[in-house]
Specification:
This is Nucleotidyl transferase AbiEii/AbiGii toxin family protein. With 282 residues, the chain is of the alpha+beta class. The protein is built from 11 helices and 7 strands.
Length: 282
């Protein structure tokens, strides 16, 4: 009943929260079990990255839906699926757990039909099944730094291998510039609101450090396949200027508890980022 009790507790503590935010809060609780499995097993060499890494390791103040990992050695997603299923079914005694590998062989979907089991009514507006997506990518640039941090995740404490902040910073710049994602049919440029928010958060973090925190520019150039940093900055300025605030708001809405904070961010992110690009990316 470990999984069930964790979800029950999270529900009871947050029953008044917005239903979309609550759903992601429950998914975050499930992430803790997945991370504990990975970093106390043979998979501990997977490099934690993405928004969830920024939240768990560095205190990013938004929820994150998915788990992202890079690998430098061989990685077998089929074997991983078998092993994590064994962990949930045998060690955590959660028999209803199941997985599905995406057609691209790079993503694994973890299914938790736990809300139905707990009798959570559909009237809450929350679907009966919770899904986590784990994305795995091979690291090909060989230009990065990692660190190992002790994190507390739910009832667990464990050490996590992740990229350092300058590497994550570079990753986020590239994600914003190159990710192809349209939320609506009339969206002018492809972007994910969470990438914009994370970049804004990193810019704020850099400012508080006296602008000593900067993206790993060598990695940035390697990922962009462009060693003209001036051009990269121009591309970023163009992208930020074209972002539509309403699509941005819709994407981040389920991930941030304070809607007042979200409204202020929506009004100020362009000015804040555009003013600091030349200071931070250098």
């Amino acid at each position: 009943m470990i999984i069930e009790n964790a979800i029950k507790n999270k529900l009871s503590q947050n029953s008044t929260k917005d239903r979309l935010y609550l759903r992601n809060l429950l998914k975050e609780e499930l992430q803790n079990f997945v991370l504990n499995f990975i970093y106390t097993s043979e998979y501990k060499e997977l490099i934690f990255t993405g928004g969830t890494c920024l939240r768990k390791n560095y205190g990013l103040n938004r929820l994150s839906e998915d788990l992202d990992f890079d690998f430098t050695n061989k990685f077998n997603i089929d074997r991983f699926g078998i092993d994590i299923t064994e962990y949930f079914i045998s060690k955590l005694d959660y028999k209803a757990f199941s997985t599905k590998i995406a057609a691209n062989q790079k993503s694994l979907f973890l299914k938790f039909p736990i809300l139905k089991e707990l009798g959570i009514p559909k009237s809450t507006g929350t679907a009966e099944d919770l899904f986590l997506r784990c994305d795995f990518s091979q690291e090909i640039t060989h230009v990065f730094n990692t660190e190992v941090n002790l994190i507390s995740a739910g009832q667990y404490d464990f050490f996590v291998l992740s990229y350092d902040l300058p590497t994550l910073f570079a990753n986020k710049v590239v994600a914003l510039l190159e990710r192809v994602y349209f939320r609506g049919a009339y969206q002018k440029v492809p972007f994910k609101g969470r990438d914009v928010y994370d970049l804004y958060w990193l810019f704020q973090l850099s400012g508080r450090s006296g602008f000593t925190l900067k993206p790993n520019t060598k990695r940035l150039e390697a990922l962009m396949k462009n060693d003209d940093l001036k051009r990269v900055k121009e591309l970023l300025k163009e992208k930020i200027s074209l972002i539509e605030e309403d699509y941005l708001y819709e994407d981040i809405y389920p991930l941030i508890e304070s809607k007042e904070l979200l409204s202020v961010f929506k009004q100020n992110f362009k000015k804040e980022i555009l003013q600091k690009i030349d200071l931070i990316i250098s």
